[in-house]
Design brief:
about 325 residues; alpha/beta; D-Maltodextrin-Binding Protein, domain 2; ten-stranded mixed β-sheet; 10 strands; about 40% helix; TRAP_TAXI; Immunogenic protein; signal
Length: about 325
């Protein structure tokens, strides 16, 4: 009996340990100088058990190359989730656009739409660049391969009658691009992300910048051709000495795989929209106030994960 009792206790102990084993949930974000990374860190903290989120969950924000890389990692299983621009997620799911000929990523699912991502075209004050068309012959960074920014930069150039061959193209992350702009080694660079972004704010303060507008009939045609684009405006004073600037935007979305369990995703979404999370998002980043449950299902373009869909239906966000 004593031996049996000991064995029983060991089995019970092992069972409790197994039940309490942490679940790891990584969130692929972007470069550390962008908006994805700090927002991902806030969300990871609020959904983790230590932040009052899902019991037993350990969520972490992982720096990455951005939308395309995150979707590939989610599809391959090296990340449980990631942030993506709405356009890139749509192309991946449908096997069109950037993913033409690469097959559909049919397991891609949405957790939530987060906030608008503004297309910034940042130029030096003395570059003489007043419109996208003025980029011809200039030294321009389009962001690195694998980023959603590169995809959108190509679309914007094309709308104004330019290709990568018409500019002196470089392919840098926003941080290094900003450094080269400050040093006079670059005339302009594209960045897609929520405003204000810290790296551009610092650049505006230290060196002075121009935000180049993306507007006119060329922008109207882009809005007609690509439904994931929306009109956007960077308010005056968002960046030091930069006036109100017309541009366009896409949505930042949080995506995962259909292979993730319904219960896990349901509980993650529930934690994301808790009162505690609301407080952290509002106080933690300028874009946090725009991350709302009312906008969570807008402009998705791909199927919601069943766990997320269940929550949004219960909340009345989805009918």
């Amino acid at each position: 009996m004593a031996v049996g009792a000991v064995l029983g206790a060991l089995v019970l102990s092992a069972g409790v340990a197994l039940a309490q084993a942490p679940a790891f949930f990584r969130i692929g974000t972007g470069g550390t100088a962008g908006t994805y990374y700090p927002v991902g860190g806030l969300i990871a903290n609020t959904i983790s058990a230590t932040g009052g989120g899902v019991p037993g969950l350990v969520a972490t924000a992982v720096s990455s190359n951005g939308s395309v890389a995150n979707i590939s990692a989610v599809n391959g299983g090296s990340l449980e989730s990631g942030f993506s621009q709405s356009d890139v997620a749509y192309w991946a799911y449908t096997g069109t656009g950037l993913f033409e000929g690469k097959g559909k990523i049919e397991n891609l699912r949405a957790i939530a739409t987060l906030y608008p991502e503004t297309i910034h075209l940042v130029a030096t004050k003395n570059s003489g660049i007043k419109s996208v068309a003025d980029l011809k012959g200039k030294r321009v960074s389009l962001d690195e391969p694998g980023s959603g920014t590169l995809v959108d930069a190509r679309i914007v150039l094309s709308a104004y009658g330019l290709t990568e061959k018409d500019v002196k193209a470089e392919y840098l992350k926003p941080g290094p691009a900003g450094d080269r702009l400050r040093d006079g080694a670059l005339d302009a660079y594209f960045f897609v992300g929520g405003y204000p972004t810290g790296a551009i704010s610092e650049l505006a303060t230290s060196s002075g910048i121009t935000l180049v507008p993306i507007g006119g009939p060329e922008a109207e045609k882009m809005l007609a051709d690509y439904q994931f684009f929306s009109k956007d405006t960077v308010p005056a004073g968002t960046y030091k000495d930069v006036p109100e600037t017309q541009t366009i935007s896409v949505n930042a979305q949080w995506v995962t795989s259909a292979k993730q369990s319904d219960d896990l995703v349901y509980n993650i979404v529930k934690a994301l929209w808790s009162d505690n999370s609301r407080t952290v998002l509002d106080a933690g980043h300028a874009k946090g106030k725009l991350i709302t449950v009312q906008n969570a299902t807008k402009g998705i373009g791909i199927p919601l994960h069943p766990g997320a869909e269940k929550f949004y239906r219960e909340k009345g966000v989805l009918q």
